Protein 1
Amino acid sequence: MELLEIIKSLSNETRLNILEWLKDPFAHFPEEELSQDTPELGVCVSDIAKKAGMSVPTVSDYLKTMSSANILIATRKGQWTYYKRNEKSIQDLATHIKDKL
Amino acid sequence: MELLEIIKSLSNETRLNILEWLKDPFAHFPEEELSQDTPELGVCVSDIAKKAGMSVPTVSDYLKTMSSANILIATRKGQWTYYKRNEKSIQDLATHIKDKL
DNA sequence: TAGGTATTTAGGTAATTCCCTAAATTTGTG
DNA sequence: CACAAATTTAGGGAATTACCTAAATACCTA
């Protein structure tokens, strides 16, 4: 639990938004572009980039930052990299702030 | 509750350290330099700057950033400005992350 | 193997953050 | 009022972050 790294990974509006969107992909992304196993795998880079209105490389880097901080989980499947939230880490963060910060 | 503003105010190692130190001023600052009502008022800018090993203006600005985000509470008394933690806001942050992030 | 799609890596400019010194302000005191 | 102590404001250089385009890589499929 690298608190500073986690906090930095969240200290950007777009990255916070991505975390929100991934809470409920079906509410935030066009259904036809979601993989059939989205709840399990998450959403792929280019769909997130489109939603964010930013370039794919920028968003790819954001997602990598958040998964390095262990806040997102990446799954490579074929040519796609899917990202989903790491709910455990998010809860651990909340607990850490509550009890230790 | 401006989540992004709060997170940004915490996204720096020195500022995180300050928050830690203020959890227990008697454990982190020389007793003789603490005000007699430190638990109530907190610790003054120059003592925090000394502990941080940074210039007073830099730390003054850090403290202002954190109190603007409502994570610290500032109290001016005479020529000193004392800062203490806003425990309520810190708990609110934890709860927000747990339930809403 | 050739070509297409998705992603990542490289490299660069602009914006923001870090953190300093100097100057200005606030408050207390003789 | 004059001076001293604590803090804040201004201003600036260095480092980091934001976010882009171009190029490279990975993987699929004919």
Protein 2
Amino acid sequence: MVRPPCCDKEGVKKGPWTPEEDLVLVSYIQEHGPGNWRAVPTRTGLMRCSKSCRLRWTNYLRPGIKRGNFTDQEEKLIVHLQALLGNRWAAIASYLPERTDNDIKNFWNTHLKRKLQGGGDGGEGDGGAASKPSTQRLASSSKGQWERQLQTDIDMARRALREALTSIHDVKPLPDAAGAAGSLSGAAADSPASSSSGASQCSPSASGYVLTTANISRMLDGWARKGGRPSSGPATPVPAESASASASSEASEVSYGVSATLPVLTSPFEYETKPSVTAPDQTQLSAIESWLFADVDGVDHHLQGGSLLDAAMDYTF
DNA sequence: AACTGTGACAACCGCTCTGCT
DNA sequence: GAGCAGAGCGGTTGTCACAGT
């Protein structure tokens, strides 16, 4: 079937977003909430396709997302989740509520893949079995084979994750790890079987993302400071230090410098919800640990009683 | 100082999935 | 059940910044 283009190519702007466009989009979403992306370009007058608007929002403008500076915990988690889930970045991102799938994907492609390739025996990384349980490999298989491969992948990943958890437990849990652990429920609900709901990035009620004004503040702060390269404004505007600095101040102050001209941004998002990053719940961790360690004593549940899904479903955070 | 190579990241593209009619 | 539209996902590309020569 010939698929029509996702959007009318005529008159649709492409390339980096300008601060003005960001503002328009943010203002619109602040007013109407994310969703109904089809209507966004027409209602806002943005010369962008709906897809582009959604991506811009989810990958950059959405409040509560953290950029750059992946912690060791996050790195480990990503590595092991990648082994567990394959290249399903949205699913992986659901374990890291402050990170976008695009961010994680980029981080994987630019840092971790190389790292694993370099550190491993060459079998790791992209070509390694652990790193490619992905659809490509699975797609070519029949359903039975698919399930077997999936189980193999799960077994392998389970061991890897077990090791990771063990090492993480040796270290004092950091907020990031806490967030990751605390958000397991989202991922559980978003288990491979229901990946279409993805990271539930756009649904305020579902994701409960950390909607603060901090991101907007950061964004505007960046613009105010440079005002130079348009789309780089918010896009690359937050150097490591300032990012962490503003993150630490979180929603406390809203000093944009240009806020006077932006009255629409003075109030928090109406659908602002509680932070999705919660303290690690020991019982939750122990639940997954019990699953992870299930085969240590020779009991391998595979996909019967002790499937990953079952274990995941046991999580009710 | 100019040029080149490389890394990082934002954005696009095409496909799949889901919900609605 | 079929067809369609919208939304989401993963792979890939384009662009910019910076380091090295």
Protein 3
Amino acid sequence: MTVKPAVTDNLLTPSEVATLFRVDPKTVTRWAKAGKLSSIRTLGGHRRYLESEVQALLQGIPQQRGTA
Amino acid sequence: MTVKPAVTDNLLTPSEVATLFRVDPKTVTRWAKAGKLSSIRTLGGHRRYLESEVQALLQGIPQQRGTA
DNA sequence: TCGCAGTGGGGTAATTTGGGAC
DNA sequence: CTTGTCCAAATTACCCCACTGC
């Protein structure tokens, strides 16, 4: 059934995502605040992003919501 | 986090590519719109170009499509 | 505990976008 | 046909400082 293994739910730091997109870490934070990127927060308030999410976005794959 | 594997191509900003080609950023944008240049967008809509692609073009290496 | 690098928050300047026209 | 410049708006980059993460 061509079951895809794990989704590599690896967490990336703002600088990691920023490097991937060639933007400023602050910009990545802005995306998270804008709700364009899913973010997990540490107990200290820092954000962490899903690598799978970032990879999908890099490929130009929008968030598929509702496959009606 | 200071070092990261280069699993992704280096991305250039419109002004970077424009400087490399000695043209206006607007012209670079037109190339992207014309499909002559591969480009990925940031979540904000800004374009980022592959340095490998630009370098290849700068060297006069046309994109072989169709192998006709 | 200390220190270093990274991160968050706010604000401002610079860049990029989009379309139309010459 | 291609390139450069005008307009307005949106997005991004860099400044400060205080705190987090390791």
Protein 4
Amino acid sequence: MRVLLVEMDTHTYPFYLKACAKCFDVREGERVHGIVVRNGFEALVFVQNALVHLYSACGMAESGYRLFEEMPERNRVTWNSVINGFAINGRPNEVMTLFREMGFEGVLPDGFTMVSLLTACVELGALALGRRAHVYLLKIGLNKNLHVGNALIDLYAKCGSIGEAHCIFNEIGVRSVVSWTSLIVGLAVNGFGKEALDFFKELEEEGLVPSDITFIGVLYACSHCGMVDEGFAYFKRMKEEYSIVPKIEHYGCLVDLLGRAGFVQEAYEFVQNMALKPNAVVWRTLLGSCMTHGHLALGEVVRARLLQLEPKHSGDYVLLSNLYASEGRWSDVQTVRRNMFQKGLRKSPGHSLVELKNHVHEFLMGDKSHSQRKEIYKMLEDVMKKLKVEGYVPRLSNVLADIEEEEKENTLSYHSEKIAIAFMLINTKPGSPIRVVKNLRVCVDCHLAIKLISKIYDREIIVRDRSRFHHFRDGICSCKDYW
DNA sequence: ATAGGGTTAG
């Protein structure tokens, strides 16, 4: 996009910069930024705000922030633009800090601010913090704001409190398709696929038009519930009834739908024949299915494609290595490991977050840094003892190394989610639910162990992992072991 | 006249 900049005045720049932001054309935006400076308009707050928005919206939150720092005059929009920049670029801690600073400067938050704040809470999985934000915005009457309502649905759903998400949905007077989509996606990631599809049906009965994102939620629900035929039927309806052109994300869902259900060869054929060029995520989905269902030969083929597309993705090395490990091919495991280390790649360390009395505690794998470490490890030993009485046998194939069996067992018992759960068993009242947010996917062994812990200690345990929720209760998980 | 928001496959 490029137009002649004759006759551009101070009123035109914001319009034009907004357009640049909308098509992520940061280069053109920078060019205009230069012109603005040369013409001496850089101190005008409207122009400045448009520039902060441009950088924030194009993934350059830091650049937006640098401008913000230099601004002689700021208003609420300036604050909102820079805060939102951090919110949409995955920097929740900066959002929290700036929100506080905004308050110190006497600038009152509005709906825009609260949406950014809620987005940051979602990112952190900080349910208690999100609830405080909710209470606050009730006080200032912002709960009537549709965008805020939708952000609240997302907050509660993504923090595993689907009942509260439901309440918010019911309280919204006039809902948009986004309200419905947020709830459908929320139900789907929490393992309530059937309910998600019921809501989709209701949405249609209300005469609303689902969006491409609504269909991502629907396809996600199908793939996580093993509804293969239904998924393809929805995909067909999406194209034919709603004239939505499928995006790579939709194809990704279908690959997952097939692969997850064990149709791994079919998934591979689907990838080769689909209308869009498969990206790394699609190939990675397929590699995940190869891993789950033990298709070693195909896994190696898929791995080769991934190496061409994204040679530096450490997660792919881990997946392949686990695939070899599950077949007991330890020398291949070693080769992959060595390969990975030689390229300077490291497995991203697993960590788990839990919220206790307005504080977020973080635990790493094998963490021994916590002030309560003695009690925690004593509790862990107790837990492991009780698990074994219940017939628990550690599943070791997921461990990335061909170390001695005993040592492997040790490594597993110290996975961050187990430590976090032990910490919460010590510090919370019997019977109260335990919520854990994990950065990686929960492994088979932890999944089995947590199921048993939920039964033995009579606790509801809600784990949000990298891709979905697990609600553990009475020894079973909402994912029905299909995740 | 001019600036800002929510839902998105692994």
